[in-house]
Design goal:
The protein is an alpha/beta fold. The protein has one domain (24-146). 29% of the residues lie in helices and 21% in strands. It has four helices and seven strands; from the N terminus they run βββαβαβαβαβ. The strands form two sheets. It has a five-stranded mixed beta sheet. The chain has a two-stranded antiparallel ribbon with strand order 2-3. The longest helix is centred in the last third of the chain and has 19 residues, at 117-135.
Length: 149
């Protein structure tokens, strides 16, 4: 009797972090996503780490143009895969994998009319799909993981 192997299809998981939303009631000078949750660790840092731990191959941060430079300076262009950081081998630096981080701006026409978390999530997922599809059909996301700040 032959055993049938399961058909495990590889999929591309894209992480969406919606930052573009109306401000909360903290009344601070900076964005709510830059609120500290620990020493030298902000809410957006926690969301990026959560996406990396969930196995996302790309991370898409949906933010307005005024907050984007601050978040880009804080986070950077990529994060190291937490699984590949702990690997030991003859050349551990060469086996480390980088997860790219992309910053998606919200269209200026949508800022005051469609300014909510749900719209930011949908806009981030649609942008991730269409931009990845222009690169190659092999890197288009199949599933999405949403992490809130």
């Amino acid at each position: 009797m032959q055993t049938k192997e399961p058909n495990l299809k590889a999929f591309h998981l894209a992480g969406i972090i919606p930052v573009a939303a109306p401000p909360l009631d903290f009344n601070m000078d900076w964005s709510d996503c830059l609120m500290p949750v620990a020493p030298n660790f902000t809410a957006v840092d926690l969301s990026v780490l959560e996406c990396a731990m969930a196995g996302c191959e790309t991370i898409w941060i949906v933010c307005n143009d005024d907050v984007s430079p601050l978040i880009r300076h804080r986070i950077g262009e990529y994060i190291l895969d937490p699984v590949s950081v702990g690997r030991m081998g003859p050349r551990p630096r060469e086996s480390r994998r980088q997860i790219p981080i992309f910053y998606v701006p919200v269209h200026p026409n949508d800022r005051e009319r469609r300014d909510c978390m749900g719209w930011s999530i949908l806009h981030g997922a649609q942008s991730a799909y269409h931009i990845s599809l222009r690169i190659s059909r092999w890197v288009t996301p199949d599933k999405y993981y949403v992490s809130f700040t």
